Fold:
Amino acid sequence: MAALHNGNQYLIERYTLSTVTAAWLTPTANPLPINPADVSVLALGLSDEVPDNDLTDDVPYFAPLKHVANELDGIVRSSSNTNDLTGVYSGTNLLNKDFDDSAFYRLKFDDHQILHIATHGLFVPTNLYSSFLMLGTREDWRISEMQNVGQQFADLSLVVLSACETALGGNQQSSSETEDLDGREISGIAQTFLDAGADAIIASLWKVSDASTSALMQQFYLELAKRTEENPVTFSQALKRAQISLLTGNVDPAVAETLNRGLVNWGENSTETRNRASETIPDFSHPFYWAPFTLIGNGL
Structure:
C-alpha cells in the first residue's frame, strides 16, 4: 500500500499506514513508555552464511547478512559500556551463536518492550509447520513452536522481523501450489505473534536488501525515540518517517555513517562510498527498498 502512486507522490507521503487483522483483538492504548530510558530492546541477529550442509532438504541456502551486526549495534546501546555512544535504546544484543532458542525465554525474565529479530525466514501460508525463522546457531525455529509458549510475548509492545527473506511462499512451492499464495503468509505470521501476546509486528512482504533494511531499521528506532508527551510518535508514524527518509535520501548522519562503514568493510560500492560524503547513502529511493515493511496490529 505504501508504494501506491498517484502520478505525483506515494501514498506513504500523505498517509500513515497500519493493518488491523481483527479490531476486537487489537489494543488501542499507546503501548510504549514515552521516555526512551524506560524502553528496552531484545535484539537477535544472524549474520553468518548458512551453508547447504547445515540444512534440511526443505530449507534453501541462506547467504550472509553482512549488515546485521551494524544494525543491531545501531539499535541497542551496550549496557556494559558506559562510553558506548551508538545505539538508540538500552537492551540486550545477541548475535549468531548467542542467538539460540533459549534467547526467547529472556522475554520471560527480562523487562523488554521490543523484540527485534534480524535474520532469514521462510513463511508458507499453506503450512504453518513449514514456516520458520533462522536462529543464530543456524537452526530453524519453527513458527509453530510459538503455539507452545502461550502468552510469552504478552509484555511486548512490538516485534520487528528485520532483514528476513520473507518471500511470498509461492517461489518455495511447486507450480501447482502457487495459485492461492497471495501474501496471506504475512498476516498469518503476524497473527501468530499477536496470538502469542505481542501488540504489533513489523514484517516484510518480499525479499529485502540487507543494506537498505539496516538503514531503514536504524532510522525507524531513531524516529521512535523522538517521542514526547506533546508528540507521542506512534509505531506507524516512525515507520512512515523512516520510509520517507530512504525515499528522499535524508537519513540521520549516524545511520549513513554506520551504513557506509559497512559498505566499505564488505567491499560493496567501496570506491563510490569512499568518495561520497559520510552523511549520504546509496540511492534507496525505489519502493523495493523501503516499501516491503508493513505494520500489523496496534500502530499506536
Summary: The first helix runs from residue 68 to 75. DSSP finds eight helices and ten strands in the chain. The beta strands are 40-45, 76-77, 89-95, 114-118, 121-122, 132-134, 140-142, 158-162, 200-204, 293-297.
